[in-house]
């Protein structure tokens, strides 16, 4: 396997960054994940746009133009012989003697790219069974719209989910509404048959997959609202699912151990998964 580190491809096992990289010390950096279908980046532009926004919100210099970055991502896919999989890109503010405030002058941002294959057969088998989610109190910071590498609450939430045999954790805000998952956006088909996901004025990530799925909905005859829901509404829903570059569209069959519907993937989620994969391939 090959990784891209600060301007060149190196063997994955030898790839390393400096101990005073601000990503390592302060989580001062951002990332993106693209799904890869047939060797091609899915939703390429949506992820580039969000990357540029995350960087500018943190006042990290854009390490290179979009065209150049796309070339490197494609080279990472090629070198690692990825047909179906994931590409990870991380940009941190760079290396400087430890100090919380920004270094002056700004260091060169550090760029790391990895690519790995995913066993789509296994993912389809998982999707056909559906996954469970748990709910946890929202404990992240107030800028979840920025895709930063500061993921400790997300990692702890995922671990709690795993320990209960679940694949995802949904955060619930003080108003009792689901914000999003630890690494995905949360959706239901409510008791009235309306597809719902939280609006992006809330403190959540503007999911690129979420946006593509909304575009698909416009072409289908599915009632949809950007409106938050409670864990109880999810438990009483007809269907639930999550979206993200890693999960694509993944049916949810239980929330906090309570079955959704019959406890099997619903028709809407199943159809949207197929449509999304078809559109992205
Ligand atoms: N996670 N919400 C959170 C908190 C996320 O971390 C992600 C993605 C999403 C879905 O966004 P998108 O559809 O743009 O992938 C929502 C990536 C896949 C990850 O952390 O691995």
Automatic annotation (TrEMBL):
Q: In which pathway does it act?
A: Amino-acid biosynthesis; L-valine biosynthesis; L-valine from pyruvate: step 4/4; Amino-acid biosynthesis; L-leucine biosynthesis; L-leucine from 3-methyl-2-oxobutanoate: step 4/4; Amino-acid biosynthesis; L-isoleucine biosynthesis; L-isoleucine from 2-oxobutanoate: step 4/4
- Please give the biological process terms from Gene Ontology that the record holds: amino acid biosynthetic process; branched-chain amino acid biosynthetic process
Q: What is its EC number?
A: 2.6.1.42
Q: Does the keyword Amino-acid biosynthesis apply?
A: yes
Q: Which UniProt keywords apply?
A: Amino-acid biosynthesis, Aminotransferase, Branched-chain amino acid biosynthesis, Pyridoxal phosphate, Transferase
Which residue stretches, if any, does this entry annotate as coiled coil? none
Q: Which reaction does it catalyse?
A: L-leucine + 2-oxoglutarate = 4-methyl-2-oxopentanoate + L-glutamate; L-isoleucine + 2-oxoglutarate = (S)-3-methyl-2-oxopentanoate + L-glutamate; L-valine + 2-oxoglutarate = 3-methyl-2-oxobutanoate + L-glutamate
Needs which cofactor?
Answer: pyridoxal 5'-phosphate
The protein's enzyme class: transferase
What's a Pfam family this protein contains?
Aminotran_4
User: Could you name the Gene Ontology cellular component terms for this entry?
Assistant: cytosol
Citing just one GO molecular function, the answer is: L-isoleucine-2-oxoglutarate transaminase activity
Q: Which Gene3D superfamilies match?
A: 3.30.470.10, D-amino Acid Aminotransferase, subunit A, domain 2
State the family it belongs to. Belongs to the class-IV pyridoxal-phosphate-dependent aminotransferase family.
- What is the name listed in the Swiss-Prot or TrEMBL entry for this protein? Probable branched-chain-amino-acid aminotransferase
Q: Which species does this protein come from?
A: Caulobacter mirabilis
């Amino acid at each position: 396997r090959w990784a891209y580190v600060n301007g060149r491809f190196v063997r994955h096992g030898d790839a390393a960054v400096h101990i005073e990289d601000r990503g390592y010390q302060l989580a001062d950096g951002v990332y993106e994940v693209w799904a890869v279908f047939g060797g091609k980046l899915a939703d390429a532009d949506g992820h580039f746009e969000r990357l540029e926004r995350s960087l500018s919100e943190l006042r990290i210099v854009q390490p290179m133009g979009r065209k150049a970055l796309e070339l490197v991502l494609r080279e990472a896919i090629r070198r690692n012989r990825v047909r179906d999989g994931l590409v990870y890109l991380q940009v941190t503010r760079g290396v400087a003697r430890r100090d919380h405030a920004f270094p002056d002058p700004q260091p060169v941002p550090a760029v790391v790219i990895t690519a790995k294959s995913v066993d789509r057969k296994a993912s389809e088998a998982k999707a056909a069974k559906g996954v469970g989610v748990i709910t946890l109190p929202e404990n992240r910071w107030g800028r979840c719209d920025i895709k930063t590498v500061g993921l400790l609450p997300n990692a702890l939430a995922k671990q709690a989910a795993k320990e209960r045999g679940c694949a995802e954790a949904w955060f619930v805000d003080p108003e009792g509404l689901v914000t999003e998952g630890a690494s995905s956006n949360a959706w239901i088909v409510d008791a009235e048959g309306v597809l719902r996901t939280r609006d992006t004025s809330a403190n959540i990530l503007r999911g690129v997959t979420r946006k593509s799925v909304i575009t698909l909905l416009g072409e289908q005859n599915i009632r949809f609202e950007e409106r938050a829901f409670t864990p109880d509404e999810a438990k009483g829903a007809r269907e639930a699912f999550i979206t993200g570059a890693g999960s694509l569209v993944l049916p949810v069959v239980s929330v906090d151990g309570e079955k959704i519907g019959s406890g099997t993937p619903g028709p809407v989620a199943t159809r949207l998964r197929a449509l999304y994969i078809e559109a992205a391939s």
